[in-house]
Structures are given as C-alpha cells and as structure tokens.
Amino acid sequence: MTLQENDDDTYVVALDVGGTTIKAALYGAGHRPLHEVRRPTGGPEGAVEGILGLAEELYEAGTARFGRPPAAAGVCVPGIVDARAGVAAYSANLGWRDLPLRRLLSERLRGLPVAIDHDMRTAGLAEARIGAAAGRSRFLFVALGTGIAGAIGIDGVIEPGANGGAGEIGHIVVRPGGPACGCGLYGCLETVASATAVGRAWAAASGDREATAAHAARAVAAGDPRAIAVWQASVDALADGLLVAVRLLDPGTVVVGGGLAESGELLLGPLREALAARVTFQRMPDVLPAALGDAAGCLGAGLLAQDARRLPTSTEVPQP
Question: Quick one: which of 49, 66, 135, 204 has the most CB atoms within 10 Å?
C-alpha cells in the first residue's frame, strides 16, 4: 500500500508489536492510515531490531514522501510495561527484560518524541476515544483471546494502576480449585472463559482434538447440546468475573473484544442475560462489542504518538 497525498497534515508513526507480527502504520489527521505494513516480529533474537528497523523505515518513507519527518511515534508491546519510564520491563515471548524501548526508538528516529505502553491498554485507549466507548465516561474493555485481559477507561484515558497492572480481569479466580493458570493460581477467569479455554473444552466434549473456539461457536449456532453446555459454562464464568468488576469499578459500559467476541450476539446476548441475573443493587452496564477489531492496537499506538507530540523530546522521565 503506497502513501497517499496529504501534505497539509502532520502524521505519526504507530507500531503494534505482537508475539508473531508487528502491525505498523503512518496515521494522518482523523486517524486516517496513510501507509500500512505487517512484518514478522522475529522472535527473541530479532524482535528489538525488527521494531527499531521498521520504525526507521516508516520514518524515512514518510519523510521522503511528505518532505518532513513524522511528528511523533507510538508503540504498544505485550508483557509488563512501565509507560512513564518508557521501559518494556518484561516479555516472556519476546525475551526482553528492562528494555529502554522509548530511548532506543527516539535515538533511531532522530530524537522524535516517542510513547510506549502495554498492548491491551493501548487497544483500550483506541476503543475509548474512537471506538465503541467513545463519549462514554467510565468503561471496562475486556479482550477474550488466547487469554483474557482488560483495561479500565476513565474519560478517554486508560488507568494503568500504581504499578501498571490495572485491569487484569483474566486473573480473577472464578472457579476455585479449577484449572491451573500460568500466574500460579487455579481457576482464573482466563482458564475457563478465554478462546483457548473454550476451544479446549469443546475439543474434549466433541472428541476432536483439533477443535477451536470458532468450531464451538458454529456448533452452538447449529444447536449442538454439547457445544451449548460448553458455551454456557464459559458465559457463566465470564459473568462471574465481570460481576467483580461491576462491584469494584461501577463501569457504565463493558466493551468486549478479542477473537471469542467475533461470535457477536451468540456470545453477547447470553452474557448480558447472565450478568443481569447476577447484578442486584448496582446498575447493569451496557455490554457492547468492540468496534475496531485487530486494528485497535495500531490505532491506539497512533493515539499514543499524538499524545507524545505534547511531551518533551528528551527521554528523561519528567519530574512531578
């Protein structure tokens, strides 16, 4: 895809770094994509240079096309992220610890202002400002994929928590003594209600070891009672986890995204019913599908970059 004419607008670099793929773009005014590209992340050995190299490639492509450099860059990464310090603290899949990613990117991009953040918070930022939660004051974004992650939105800003861990709804224990979770506990929400968990449960129920959550959804739509039982167990667990969030956060809106949410009302309809049956004295939040799909992370990185335009170009952490 080639760059389009847009010489009157400033533009930014955005990168959404996943375990296997980097989605990257140049965004102009109105979050319009001017150039988009996807590249393999490269695994632990090549991930860092892959990020830096692709960011530099976009910088140079934009500068050559528009006659001026981009205004800023934003990048979201998995794992533990200290956004304030600009450090990717830990990623099991990508093999880094305490990576000063903001400094490395700013150096590679000729001193450009750079912002980094966690991939889920960044996707939530996009849904907060230009997606399903736009104009909504308090919301919870929940992504149902390989695991379950969340982000807490307040007036268009994502709350990171004191240590960058706010929104980890996937590790609320909803089935004590249930399946072991990678976090070290048992019966966490993501062990029973993620796309991975639904696929695993349907594989066991159907006898098809290759079955996935998408297969389960099709079987539910076809009326298979085994699939309906698997699906309802997942919905009930998800409603139990969301009830905790409703009790603690009182969100006006819950936005549900991720691969499992692609089933649409097949999931959201029963989920609304199950959550409404559990909510007693509090007001039932609106439960909406995410609007931006797998573009949310990259769009959110573009929003991080737009915000970074107002920051100093120095990679030092501002003092309070």
Answer: 66
